[in-house]
Fold:
Amino acid sequence: NAGVTQTPKFQVLKTGQSMTLQCAQDMNHNSMYWYRQDPGMGLRLIYYSASEGTTDKGEVPNGYNVSRLNKREFSLRLESAAPSQTSVYFCASSELIGGPYEQYFGPGTRLTVT
Amino acid sequence: GESVGLHLPTLSVQEGDNSIINCAYSNSASDYFIWYKQESGKGPQFIIDIRSNMDKRQGQRVTVLLNKTVKHLSLQIAATQPGDSAVYFCAESGSDYKLSFGAGTTVTVRA
Structure:
């Protein structure tokens, strides 16, 4: 039982490049989330998916897109990376029905945009 | 918008002492609160949660207190150990079930 896994762990991009961050969970959770964490700050919600087939914007969605590929997988795409998107990205999952309940987090992807 | 925040960004504690980490929230409609621990280079790890119909909940060496009157949340860690050194985040959730996080308190345990 791996919990929440994220790939890659580290990534360096040049301004304007695109990339997709991958996330998968094996806990059969309905809901999945993408956050970013900047130095000295808490986590800010980028996008979330309350259940398979749905996605919604969070607090800071500009510059990002997401895909809920199936119940297990939720990807985050940067179409044209900008230095302001340098951050640590965390994926999380939780059971939502009857909730809220605690969210389980992955280890993070450290992204640098130069 | 309304947000969750912590009173102090850093806390230094002697090993063996009890730690108290405070959090103030402003959304009176929030009904679920949670504490996370984040060690360097890792993702946040669940510690304990509490719903608004309770004012106290205990776990292993941790206690969360909720005071809805003054919109205050605290995390107490008993007999603090070196492994407790980390950043601690409180978060709250309302009817939309999304979590809003505070900025975090860095706890350093002195030997």
